Fold this sequence. Notes:
2 copies of one chain form a homodimer.
Chain A: E1 5-6, H1 16-24, H2 46-61, E2 67-72, H3 75-87, E3 93-98, H4 101-111, E4 115-121, E5 143-149, E6 151-152, E7 157-158, E8 170-173, E9 188-194, E10 205-210, H5 211-217, H6 243-258, H7 261-281, E11 286-288, E12 299-304, H8 310-319, E13 322-323, E14 334-337, H9 344-361
Parallel strand pairs in A: 1-13, 3-4, 3-5, 5-8, 8-9
Antiparallel strand pairs in A: 2-10, 6-7, 9-10, 11-12, 12-14
Amino acid sequence: MHRVHNFSAGPSQLPLPVLKEVQEELLDIQGMGASIMEISHRGKIFGPIYDQVRERLREALGLDDSWRVGFVTGGATMQFGLIPMNFLSQDGRAAYFHTGTWSKKAIADAKLFGKVDLPFDSSESDFDHVPPPGATFTLDSSTRYAHFTSNNTIVGTQFASEPDTGGVPLVCDASSDFLSRPIDVDRYGMIYAGAQKNVGPAGVTIVCIRDSFLASNKVSDRAIPALMNYEQHLDQMPNTPPVFPIYMVNLVLGWLLEQGGVTAMQEKSGAKAALLYDEIDKDDYYRGTAQKESRSVMNVPFRLTDEAAEAHFIEKAEAAGLHGLKGHRFVGGMRASIYNACPMESVQALVDFMDEYRRTHG
Amino acid sequence: MHRVHNFSAGPSQLPLPVLKEVQEELLDIQGMGASIMEISHRGKIFGPIYDQVRERLREALGLDDSWRVGFVTGGATMQFGLIPMNFLSQDGRAAYFHTGTWSKKAIADAKLFGKVDLPFDSSESDFDHVPPPGATFTLDSSTRYAHFTSNNTIVGTQFASEPDTGGVPLVCDASSDFLSRPIDVDRYGMIYAGAQKNVGPAGVTIVCIRDSFLASNKVSDRAIPALMNYEQHLDQMPNTPPVFPIYMVNLVLGWLLEQGGVTAMQEKSGAKAALLYDEIDKDDYYRGTAQKESRSVMNVPFRLTDEAAEAHFIEKAEAAGLHGLKGHRFVGGMRASIYNACPMESVQALVDFMDEYRRTHG
């Protein structure tokens, strides 16, 4: 079996033991004589899986009974519209931290439904930074929620900690650093994440909403189609869910908890990112694109000082078994995505290659 | 490898050769060293798959260039809201054929957006029939579209042919008989289907919209979040799609075309359904629940005259390797779902069991 070192930004690498388990039981799950994809979502096999995945999610995130969890579809992008549809009335007000391409889409959808303030906006500097740790923001007293993108995959920035909004509940698009570190859940009203970076394949989106947030913010004067109403999804299945992606999220969460949960992931991510950024910062042969204080430990974009050589670098890297390093067109150059499932060995292989490339082409 | 005869209503049986191919390449697709789930949806592997699946869909359905196709999420239920959001303005009018649980949900969502007429309604008789073949309906001249559920999984009814709406374009929820027979696409404005009955695993929904229908019905005076706008999805990927479900739909469509396409499926379905209904009608030991003229060739619900014995029948069937026969709670009794991937051998095994059960317990 051939496996590359995989730095894809998403969909991205999955834990190998999980993939092997999926492969093994693909035609016959738990000896019942059918694939997980061929059986009822309300039956004896998937029912317990659906319970287990929510339990594991609660355990991994540290959510108590005041939280409800659900599995929806459409990715984070679908939630950009559903969040204001559910929680922002026409005369209501929400704050959005504008830190990149994803917040831009979220803001555009929110403006269709209510008033939007931007307490932070780094669009003028190509989104190369996010608010510094400890930054405080004074929001209008009528602000219903404050939305932020905890990690920005394209530019490679990440909030080091939650922005201080003076008690206004946070709504977080955590798609690209979900379950990579402990978070202070008490400050959140809602956390959502597309699975395809850190917890599974593309095709399912995790939504966690605090009961009190739902109770105090649910818009009552707007007609919302049944399946677009978040309440329909929380802790229940209103219709056939994406069974296979959810089944895989359950296996990835099992792997994550076995590895030591978010604390272990944070330690591992920190070590992987440090190794890579140290290589980038060693001299001026390579350079990072995000401001140092805002650097992400999940996505590490970098350039060659000699930009003309970048296509050659990526080609040689691919030939050396280092896959998915081409940077997003918005930033150019290279990007190494080193999510939870990316092993230290892959980062070491990349650093060795970068070292060798500098030596032989420098 | 243990495999049962699978009569699940959905998610349901998939073609075995497809599952085997998926299993084989699960860790390493096309020798690239990663799973189909671990690579970019815009890369060299999935790009051609995404083109191929749309080509195969056009070929299987017989769609020419006046049609656009897309892959969305949320199942048919999500489309219940998106269809009127996109195509029914507040002063607009749509007709809905009310033939079961699914049309009920579709009607409820449509009423949030515009005026809804019900040219046909079988709710008074527990939805045991649909309009007879050739039935014509005179609709209000301002009707934008006429929505119908071509096959009703719960009660086991199916439109034998499209209702005659005097030229008003049809919008069809074809989830449970998609690609099971040729259809007269010229009469449709939109065809949509959750994949999990006839063309893949749960987690992706196919949407086909005719250009002229889009042009003449697209609502212009309503703010629609980006990803809820159908135009964003047609023939393109606005965001990360459900990669694995789409990859599987592509394989199932390859299998279907190899088998001879929808004409071959229609022939096979007819033979399977005839075998089963003949067994049901043989005497009054079993009985069907839908009116004969409205019977579905996809879902065959049936009862024992001795209803108290049904739990025992289902238990014995399960023990004999006949899975998924428990009927929907709305109808009770048994239901055999015999979608495209269900082989004749499975139906024969069921009929043999029914015969034996009658003989030994009659």
